[in-house]
What does this fold into?
Amino acid sequence: MRDSLFALLLTGCIVSAAAVPTPILDYDFAKVQNSTLADSSGSGMDLKVEEKARLEKDSSGAFLASDGIPESGAKLEASKESLQKWKEKCPKRAIAASFRIKFNKLGASADFGIFSLEARDDGRLVLRFRVKNPGGSPNYRIMSEERIKAGQFYHFAFSYSVDRQEVCMMLDGKIQANNAGMALNELEGGNTPSFSSGLDGAIGEFRLYGCPVSIEDLSSVTISKEEMAQLEKSLADLQKNSKNKHLLEWGKSLEKTLKAIHAASRTPLGQFSELKDEIEKLARLASDLRADKSASPEQLFVTYIVPPLSSEPRLPSKLPEDGAIGREIKIVAAQGEFEPASIVVVSFAPIGKLELQVSDLVNAKERIPAKNIDRKLVKCWYQSGNAWYSYHADRSRHVLVPELLLNDDELIKVDEKEQANYLRMDYPDGVKYQNISRLVSKDPVFNYMLEPVHDAASLKPVALKTAGRAQQFFMTVKVPEKAAAGLYRGTLDLLADGKKAESLEILLRVLPFQLPAPKTNYDLTRDYIVKIHRVGSSISLCKDRKTAEKRSLLEYRNLFEHNAYHPDGPDFTSGDTELAKRDLELRREAGLPCKPLFAGYCGRAWGDNGWATRNEKDMENRSDELLRQGKANFGRYLNNLMSTVKETLGHNDVYFYGTDETGGYLGLIGNQAPFWAMVHAAGGKVMAAGWTDNFKFVPDTQDMHCYSSLDRTQAEYWHSVGGRILNYANPFAGPENPMVFRRGCGLKTYKTDYDGMFILSHYDKRYFVWNEFQTGWPTGSYRGFNLVYPTQDGPVDTLAYEGVREGIDDLRYCTLFRQLAERALRSDNYEVQRAAKRHLAWFIQLDGERSDLDGLRTELIDRILNLRELLGEKQ
Amino acid sequence: MKFHQFIPLCLLLWGFGAAADEVKSVEALWRGNPRPSVPEQLYKLWKDENKLWDRRFMPYNRKEADELYTDPVLQRETAASAMSTENPRTTAFIVLCNNGGIYCAIYAAEPELAKNADPAKLPNNSLEIFIGPGNDPRYPFHQFVIDLKTEKQVYHNNGNKITDHQFSTDKKEGKLKDYPWGPENRSYRRLEGNITYGVTNNREGYLVWFYIPWQIWYEHLPLDGGTDGKWGFNIIRWAPGGGQTWGGNVHQRSSFGKLTWPKFTQQQRDAIRSSLLNSAYENYKKLTAAFRIEIPDSERSFEDGTALAQQSSEAAAMPVMDQEFVKKFVRPMIEERDKLGKSIVNFKNLSEEEKTALYAQIDKLYEFNYDLENARRRFLEDKLFSTETIK
It folds into this structure.
């Protein structure tokens, strides 16, 4: 009864496990042979069962019964080699264990070498292990909430993880402690397992893990007859109804696993959960294949055509909900536009090398070369809790999310059992993978300029190592500006282990127009600004100007191609005018408009010689001399910046950033006014991020506000005084969901009548860039503010970044639509005017927060074509 | 079949509730009767069922609170100067649910109210609430803030008997702000426009309630228990006595407490599903009204289209005038969905299997707009690819 209740309880906490962890020690006491118990995990850390030890068995399995004396236990019997290996891999940052245990009496303790367990007089269990804690206690200790009884078996499990900042303890399926967000010390390590020290009782089914393990994976489950019957039926139906030989084979292997799991004395809950997910997935695949008239019994995988940007995270274990099996990829794009498409390939059996080959796209007269179709794989990796939707980190959790658009899958190795990412560095003396998911506070700043991180130049073959593995691919077609309008056709061939296995047709409709730069919703003459922060390759980190320039140019081109036209900088505060000039030239070379330029800073730092004060009372005591000094310093900087920009770009349309996120009289006026006045006197403009105080205090001197909320009233306020307003922090970079950015940078902000977006940031140099689990300044609770990740060969793009591009492309379509509609409104033809009004009436009612953006894009195209026809526009 | 559909009686797990203090859990109580939404009912709930209110609030970690200044989107009153720990305020809450949705009442003691102070001088008090439905860590949690102190809401009376109230459920008053972390789409809906709430006060403190219809989370209903039945939940109070939290830090989903659901009886499960199906069908009928009026093509005009569109506000932006689209795509969609109406009326007579199958189609009704937009996109795409050249 106890066991069945236990199983019943456990089934309540099933979650889908990404991968079932593998124990590093696995002792099944039913497998003792000649007094030796081999470690089933193959570590060579075998046990010698002592003479007086008793090997017994009950309905739950075999166990070792001991009287508390060494002669009745089991001691380690391992080779030197195995011991050496054990010392090397002995877990330090995470440990977990699961076993059955019985204490014959309370007030006793047992030392298992790696940890010890005490049954106190009051029945509460105390778990101890040694940690590195300079100056503090070397023992980490955690106690159960509930009390055990002597002479009774319990299932005990725990998990301790420095990186997840979490320790949890379970007794018979009930959580005894689950402390999250704790700063934990590393384990001392180096100890070896032992079952011969003090246990007066019994132990069985012992498994030790070197990685954090979820409570679900540490738990056991008993499969009910009904569940077993349902799963068997599902697999039997497959054998009956499916014709695909690979699916059938996969089904048989799942059947075998199911039977093995059912027969086993103990079934890990996570393993069972994963198996059920697999069976469910197999059933859906079989059903989808049945509906596919072109399906072949031999086919090795299936291809789903999916929306390239979606709120649905495409995980390796999941089939797409919003896609369908297909053999046609349809893309619609304007001349000169970048337009994405995507597929998800799901294998029915392991594929060593899956390759994607595209042909040229051709129509009757013209050809778009295959090189204009960029192909990438979408890499899933572990990011902190709140991943996919928020820029606030919850570092106690590692969540698998799709994010990176890579050519080489091997650039990042993802260990789904350990829930860790490893980044490849190609050093001259060999490749080294670095763990980039460790929770660390004092790692040196990752020198993104020097570390040899390289992605491949083009998409390399991808391995789909297990049946049922889903892999998303992302294609971006770059339509030449001069491409003739029309329907282009080409193919995307998928090769499995060198053989052509599938051919998809690509249909590209090139529209008979180019897209204009985006304009604001409230004023068709005003540019919609995409200002992006913290950009550029730092020469000081590189110590090689040529390399820095090469990388800067790659980054600027990357920005230009993603509609992020207004990167911050260059930085004039260092005083290196030549460097700043060169930077401006590189921007121009990349096609960036550089007008306006967001290069200046005019905040309180210029008065930090003591003139700028922390409270208003001190303002009266400020000396004129301090102000004079501050103004002199600022003046030199200001004049240098303005004259260099004028000389290089031929204009003075430069914004200077005031103190960030400040408010009140002191913050906005008291400490900054003299510098702001100097900016205006020199022909520059002032901007800053902040809140409502900015309009209360400085509507007359601040030219552009970056407001941390979307509020139409604020937009009206700032426009009423001729100012501009950008959307700030809605969102910051961090979330991977591309729709957060497509909508946030695009229609949502546009329809609130803002002048654009302030994005923080392209990538964030303050952090170890690739490791989001690094803590340290600025801690807060933020994730890495990365829209791209730096490599030696230019940025690695992300789904979110593609969301930015498409969000702004939406606005470019809106702009063209509005421009045409405005022209039609002025037509002499009454019917054309009426049509324009109908179109505009539709447009004004669009909901920027909710409208389906793919649907909106198509609708805009249809209406643009209609307006062009009405206006007699030709290609 | 979804995995959770054959999870057995897992709700028992919660009954133990023996988790250490770090993981708090509160169980929602089923109440079939209407939710208390006027002050008298609210005070009665506080008075009569006082023992059921959860008071396990802890001081918000000062260091963590101090760092919240870095959040530009939400400026909280967390400055150390405003957070004396000498006079901590009591905070307590209770969660109820019925066939319509989730109801939460919160009591926030504020001794300054008794001093008949100038309303403008009363200390700031606000509640920051997090709800993370289901078990998918990639599904955005909901965050919203109820500002307790606005001049309009502050009211003093002469004792425990409530004689007058300032009581508002109008979100335009600016007292409630939600922070939707997901972009709105067919599987994520923001609270704004769906949540209702109210704030009242007597001389001892504020009483607050909010109500969220199941509709927001109709695909995450915790009817079958499992981990889907343990939602992340937290209430943080920012008040002069110091920040207080029931379940961890802001945004730290792993530290949130758990909102667990009762083991719903079959009757309660049916009541929830039936209520949602009816609401979904009503919603759908409203959305499709514009497509149901038969006007001969020859008599149609733009004015007709506008007039029709106005009848279904959500679908106003859709081109109801495009008869080819309507005939080819919309009418079949409507025919398919109209059939569901008959089953919904007959819900109570269906077998459990039929009920489950019917409920699985509820998104076709609630998300008709998205389906419509999707159909429109396919229709226009077909047009774009139907010929070699377009003008």
